[in-house]
Design a protein that fits this description.
With 226 residues, the chain is mainly beta. The protein has a single domain, classed as Beta Barrel (Porin). The protein is 9% helix and 65% strand. It is built from one helix and eleven strands. Strands 1-2-3-4-5-6-7-8-9-10-11 form an eleven-stranded mixed beta barrel. A hairpin with a 4-residue loop joins strand 1 and strand 2. The longest helix has 20 residues. It is globular and about 50 Å long. The termini are far apart. About 7% of the residues have low confidence.
């Protein structure tokens, strides 16, 4: 083996070694807690408010607090349109909570087949830093989310299992097609006049970036309609 061949082998080894380091996956365990209150305004229109707290670093550190408000309008039995607003408080590396605003619009298609209900949701959302914060603002993010889901109604049983798969796409000329993948499985329990209780397990996986995060989430939510 001559000198040139040795240099080529060394260069290839360094390239693969760097690439392996750059795609190192960072993992964390999170807990999500949700409370949702929903009011039916008229036959096809409903409004809701939801608050969410997210704990990271093995569920020991409050990372984000969200306050959501939304409106949903059922145009047909299988087509629903919705708009929403979120005020988010995100903790930064200096342990300071920064405000962010999220605006969203979505369309959901659903169809029941026997005891299954299949759904598809397309959501557009825009995320902006708070204008009044002293720090320099980051560019706004425009995200398209595609989610497919299925629910199963168990006969004479109060809990119904469900599962969903969702892809996030950052909109922009230099962005990859998919930026994040979200897989969720869970169950929703009917508490009668006291509302619903939801328990779920979720995997959030960042895509197409160096040092992608993978979050393993356990979540619980309480839902009340009136």
């Amino acid at each position: 083996m001559n000198l040139s061949h040795s240099l080529i082998l060394i260069s290839l080894f360094n390239v693969f070694n760097i690439s392996a380091q750059e795609i190192k996956i960072i993992r964390d365990f999170r807990f999500n807690g949700e409370v949702n209150i929903e009011k039916k305004i008229c036959r096809n229109l409903k409004a809701g408010f939801e608050t969410t707290i997210k704990l990271e670093k093995n569920a020991s550190h409050t990372e984000e607090i969200d306050l959501d408000a939304y409106l949903d309008y059922k145009l047909f039995s299988c087509v629903t349109f919705g708009v929403g607003y979120r005020l988010a408080f995100n903790r930064d590396k200096d342990d300071i909570f920064n405000r962010k605003h999220r605006y969203s619009a979505e369309c959901t298609l659903s169809e029941g087949i026997k005891r299954f209900e299949f759904s598809y949701r397309l959501r557009y959302q825009n995320i902006d830093d708070d204008f009044f914060q002293p720090d320099e603002q980051k560019p706004s993010k425009n995200i398209l989310r595609n989610r497919a889901g299925v629910n199963y109604n168990i006969r004479k049983f109060p809990a119904d299992p469900y599962a969903s798969l969702e892809f996030y796409s950052l909109l922009g000329s230099n962005e990859d097609i998919f930026s994040k993948l979200k897989i969720t499985i869970g169950t929703r329990c009917d508490l009668g006049k006291f509302g619903d209780l939801k328990i779920f397990y979720r995997i959030d996986r960042e895509l197409s970036i160096f040092y992608p995060y993978t979050y393993f989430n356990i979540g619980a939510g309480y839902y009340f309609k009136f």
